[in-house]
Amino acid sequence: MRITRLLRSRDEKVGLPRKVTGAPPGTIFYTGRRQMEDVHVHLTSYDAEAYNCATTINEIPADTAPGKIDWYDMRGLHQTELVGELGSRFGMHPLALEDVADVQQRPKMESYEKGVFLQLKAFAFDSATRQLSTEQVSIYLTDNTVVTFQEDAGDLFAPVRHRLEIASGRIRSRGADYLAYALVDNVVDRYFTVLDQIEEALDALEDNILKRPEVQTKSSIHDLRLSLLTMRKSTSPLREMVGNFGDSNHYLISEDTQLFVRDLRDHVIQVTDLVETYRDVTNGLYDLYVSEISFRMNSVMQTLTIVSTIFIPLSFLAGIYGMNFINMPELNTRYGYFVLLGVMGLAIVGMLYLFRRRGWL
């Protein structure tokens, strides 16, 4: 339950703003913290023969030549006026624009009369700190146009842009719906990269636990546990979103593209299964950590117990001959001191032999 509270209150802990209570539906309010100095719109225009790209700052690019597919990629969501202007130009529904700026939305697909709205999460994993960062991505598909919204200046869609530039595969010869699919597929592919990094972190933690568990190992396991729970919250509804995308009868989505989307659904199921598997592994690592700590503590206690047990007869002998009685025959023995030391030594050797024979050492 404590992890659930941490996930639920993580937004408050990092100071994410909340939408104003009572605001009318369709109000564009940015609920994130990322802000960029230069919010810009990147325009990519292409067809089977040509490819052009341009970047403009704080304004909507001019219309491009007809017959081409236009991809408007806005980076930076805190400038909500530009979000509204870009969305209004392509007839985005006010509720879709509200969801673009609300980074706490779950992945989903919404169909409108003149467009299709897709929303999902992108992840990045820092192997050094074992921290997972999340970025919300929104995609709007309309006639021969795709509009995307990213929170950061970094380009999540660089591989897709590169494929367009070199005309790799079928992407330049297909419609805007295939571009929307390619963008979603690119984000899902990044999930596998993040999960590979998490797997490496889990392997490193397992080696650390088996060799020498440390105090910070528990915190590292807890961080990975929270990261996987965060991914699970986003990948579970992603299955529904991709399923709706692949089964949609919207006129903007062709049957040919739906075949690729259904293959993407298999990838999403694989991601979901991996997240669940790694969650189980993380829970197993925590149990292993507790068991290893208990085993080492038991080993220490066993060693201390053996040492204490060895000294019990020695203390008994030393206590007897440490008494101040005058009439003790052994006190007048010439070699009594050495005999006593020999008896003590034999007691030590005998007890060690007995412990080893019983498997206590």
Automatic annotation (TrEMBL):
Keyword annotations of the record: Cell membrane, Ion transport, Magnesium, Membrane, Transmembrane, Transmembrane helix, Transport
One MF annotation (Gene Ontology) recorded for this entry: magnesium ion transmembrane transporter activity
Membrane topology of this protein: Multi-pass membrane protein
GO cellular component: plasma membrane
UniProt xrefs under CDD domains: TmCorA-like_1
Gene3D superfamilies the UniProt entry points to: CorA soluble domain-like, Magnesium transport protein CorA, transmembrane region
Compartments where found: Cell membrane; Membrane
Spans traversing the lipid bilayer: 304-323, 335-355
Record's function text: Mediates influx of magnesium ions.
Stated family: Belongs to the CorA metal ion transporter (MIT) (TC 1.A.35) family.
Full protein name: Magnesium transport protein CorA
The organism of origin for this protein: Neolewinella lacunae
Gene (UniProt): corA
